[in-house]
TrEMBL record, chain B:
It is found in: Cell membrane. Gene3D superfamilies: MetI-like. SUPFAM superfamilies: MetI-like (SSF161098). It comes from the Bacteria. Coiled coil: none annotated. Its main location: membrane. It holds the Pfam family BPD_transp_1. The keyword Endoplasmic reticulum does not apply. This is Sugar ABC transporter permease.
Length: 312, 313
């Protein structure tokens, strides 16, 4: 783990230096690998055209979602960039098919799961980063191993576990906990947090200890406030990880009523007479929370990825 | 969880006082971190490790509810590796993993080169291009399935019709379905890779560009001899992460094609899923999962080992 830690922190450093350099100098031909120069010239026109092309390729599907969600005439055969019959027909149809119930399921799962995931990451990383004890290496290795056991690989036995937790007869199937508890321990958030906490200066902590602060108070009022940047990273990645869950809500459900919205999109497809408009209205609903989180926490997201983060 | 007073004793006695720490205090000091680790460890054991061992155990059993399980040795593994559809699905998985990974890195590198810079319009474009990363895979699958609708009036067919290309069946055509899965995969993964590669680009020493310009080096030579070599580690990270992840591809394929048409896009996980949850062959499906786990572990540890050895040299 130690080499990964080093490479991550040096990478972060170079990125930061690079940004600073960019900020100082006005964009010139030595500021990008391609040597782009600003102003009205041939290469820049080509560049603008290519950027617009890229924008079209990556943004058009989202415009289609938006337009079809409010297009009363949208069907698979005729999705358009602009609604041909603007209406709220899809909203009413979606409501009738219980889309808002699925959305509620999604919110309960992402709310509970994210909270628990962050609490566990904070508690575990506090122990791993700020304490020395026998067995630290083994615990690290165990958490690392959880990252290699994604839901897909353990899906079949996990489905049984959800129906009967560790042989206790406790059945989580059909409850939000069937999804919340399995996503609660995520190696990624634990490692990112641990790495960050390890770099905090020990002096403040020692002073607080001399003042007679207990461990929980220490974590809550000294360490956590210093962890704000990494809490942002852990929050947005945790949100994306839980919102993106597909197989898990599928196997943890008792009936389609328990599905999250993303999984339920497939159910909507099977309803006779429901056009693409209704499905894409559901897709839009499922997209909005991600968009809000993204726009609010864009910096944390970029920081996390640039630090060598993984999406899964 | 712990009474503050005990910790006070630990720290006051242990760190600053210079007195000998009584055995009971040092035991407490060893205990405290474990109390913080308990919630995470318990959940990891119950929802990760127990299922992992269960999966390994089941892979050697003929699982029969109500009849009692029967030990069958390596039979399930033999069934998996002898199953023609399974072998085909492994082939499809590797095809998707290779082409999607390489494609996403190439596209990401082109995007990164195109959009490097601190101008405001570039930042706005990057924000927009980045949207697929924050979008749930299921949504991406649904919208692309609709865009690629195999009729003349389907969106993609109208776009290619504009360039005079005859209408295609896309995901319904067994000969090209897998390539459209790859295209959607590249569309999804490229923006994410772009961010990692942009960080790599920004980190390149600018004086190298200036020096090379003095020597009259062309843009192509600059890319070839300065940019790409400087970004070797970024490429390595992106490629290995993506390749390992691609082996367990499930959601996109399940939503886009469900493994069809005629099994032409069946992958490791969709095949395992239908064995386990549609046909209830839990033992065979577990064996398939264990093989995937072993492959993933070997690849991950192998990559770690190689990067570590390179780091030491």
């Amino acid at each position: 783990m130690s080499t990964t830690t080093e490479s991550l922190s040096t990478k972060r450093l170079t990125t930061r230096q690079g940004r600073r350099r960019n900020a100082k100098v006005v964009e010139g031909r030595f500021d990008s690998a391609m040597g782009w120069t600003p102003g009205f010239n041939a290469t820049n026109i080509v560049r603008v055209i290519l950027v617009i092309l890229a924008l079209l390729i990556f943004a058009v599907p989202f415009l289609i979602i938006l337009s079809s969600a409010f297009d009363g005439a949208a069907s698979s055969m005729a999705v358009k960039l602009w609604p041909s019959e603007p209406s709220l027909e899809n909203l009413r149809e979606a409501e009738r098919l219980g889309v808002f119930g699925y959305l509620l399921n999604s919110f309960v799962i992402v709310g509970g799961g994210l909270l628990l995931q962050i609490v566990i990451a904070v508690l575990s990383s506090y122990a791993l980063a700020r304490h020395r004890f026998r067995g630290l290496g083994i615990v690290m290795a165990l958490f690392l191993l959880t990252m290699m056991l994604p839901e897909e690989i353990i899906a079949i036995p996990l489905a049984q576990t959800i129906g009967d937790v560790a042989g206790t007869g406790l059945n989580l199937r059909g409850t939000p906990f069937g999804v919340i508890l399995p996503v609660a321990v995520w190696g990624f958030s634990i490692f990112v947090m641990t790495e960050f906490m390890r770099d905090l200066p020990p002096e403040i902590e020692e002073a607080a200890r001399l003042d007679g602060l207990g461990e929980l108070r220490m974590l809550w009022s000294i360490i956590l406030p210093m962890c704000k940047p990494v809490l942002g990273v852990v929050t947005i990645f945790g949100f994306m990880m839980i919102w993106d869950q597909y197989l898990l809500p599928l196997i943890a459900a008792n009936s389609p009523d328990d599905y999250t919205l993303t999984v339920a999109l497939r159910v909507l497809r099977a309803v006779p007479g429901s056009g693409s408009g209704v499905i894409l209205f559901g897709a839009l609903l499922a997209l909005i929370p991600s968009l809000i989180i993204y726009l609010l926490m864009q910096k944390s997201l970029i920081r996390g990825i640039a630090a060598g983060a993984t999406k899964g | 969880m712990t009474a503050p007073s005990t910790i006070d004793i630990v720290t006051a006695g242990g760190r600053r006082g210079g007195r000998r720490i009584p055995a009971s205090v040092s035991f407490r000091r060893q205990l405290i971190p474990w109390l913080f680790l308990v919630p995470g460890l318990v959940l990891a054991i119950v929802f990760k490790f127990v299922p992992m061992f269960d999966g390994i155990r089941m892979s050697f059993l003929k699982v029969q509810p109500f009849l009692g399980d029967e030990f069958v040795g390596w039979d399930n593994y033999a069934t998996v590796l002898g199953d023609k559809r399974f072998i085909e699905s492994i082939g499809n998985t590797v095809t998707i993993a290779v082409f999607q990974t390489v494609g996403a890195v190439v596209v990401a590198f082109l995007l990164a080169l195109l959009m490097e810079g601190s101008a405001r319009w570039l930042r706005w474009t990057r924000t927009a291009v980045f949207l697929p990363v924050v979008t749930a895979l299921a949504i991406i699958g649904e919208v692309w399935r609709i865009l690629l609708f195999p009729s003349e009036a389907g969106f993609a067919n109208r776009v290619i019709g504009f360039f005079g290309i005859p209408p295609q069946d896309f995901l319904s055509d067994p000969n090209q379905a897998i390539w459209w899965v790859v295209v959607v995969g590249i569309w999804t993964a490229a923006p994410y890779n772009m961010i990692i590669l942009l960080a790599g680009l920004v980190g390149i020493d600018r004086t190298l560009y200036e020096a090379s310009a003095m020597d009259g080096v062309s843009t192509w030579q600059r890319l070839r001899h300065i940019v790409i070599p400087s970004m070797r580690s970024s490429f390595a990270v992106v490629l290995t992460l993506a390749a390992i992840r691609a082996l367990r591809v499930f959601t996109e394929v399940y939503v886009l094609t469900g493994g069809g048409p005629a099994g032409s896009t069946e992958v490791w996980m969709t095949r395992t899923f239908s064995l386990g949850f549609d046909q209830y062959k839990l033992g065979v499906a577990s064996a398939a999962s264990v093989i995937l786990l072993v492959v993933t572990l070997v690849l991950t540890i192998g990559v770690q080992w190689i990067t570590r050895r390179k780091g030491n040299n």
